[in-house]
Write the structure tokens for this entry.
Amino acid sequence: MNDGYELLDSGGGRKLERFGRFVLARPCSQAMWKPSLPESEWNRADASFDREDGNRWHGRGNLPKEWTMETAGIKFSLGGTDFGHLGIFPEQRAQWKWIMEALRASPGAKVLNLFAYSGGSTLAAALAGAEVCHLDASKGMVEWARRNAALNGLDSIRWIVDDAHKFMRREIRRGRRYDAIVLDPPTFGRGASGEMYKIERSLQETLDLASSLLSERPVFVLFSSHTPGLTCKVAENILRQRFPAARLESGEMLLEGRGTPCPSGIFCRVVF
């Protein structure tokens, strides 16, 4: 097995995935088609998660508290959370590979990763030799990302627990600028001090601040989203207004493997 992640099957509102040596079945609202594998194969999963009567794991005791896997050349520490997440969004694998390729052609670039979760994009950028600032409002997620950085032998990342807008305003005042910015804002979230974030009303300000932080010779802005209704064309329209001379590349993020590719959000790359 060359990659630690694999989509084994999807359908009926579910997805069957392999994370390292463990197979998990979890909800997937986009998977409206019929599964390819028989139910007996799904029943062999080490654990499953559903939201039928609240958030609930089945067979969670079959999983260790933490385990390690590698995908896209990056090592991750995984663990089952109460919301069914594991500490990784594997649909971002293609973006991590793209980040590495783009930054290897721009040695020493300064990168800001906003709403950075467990750090997949941060690690991809750092492994490519970039100088990275990682920001998330959750102290627990930043600690998780730091563990992932240690797994990958990375120790020079700048770690920030803060509200994204507050931090960006301070960086603008300080005169700091970045050559590349990665952002995957939540549909709804709260900042480190309880600040409310709603993408439909907050995204414009997020992008205004981010564009003000770009250096004179930027490399890229990478925007991604899991918000229902925020399509590739919507993202393109928003980003083209800010960066009319840049090249835009957009598409669906996919969970991939042996099963039917499963859409899981969108991306839009702004390439300068």
In short: The domain at 90-271 is CATH 3.40.50.150 (Rossmann fold).
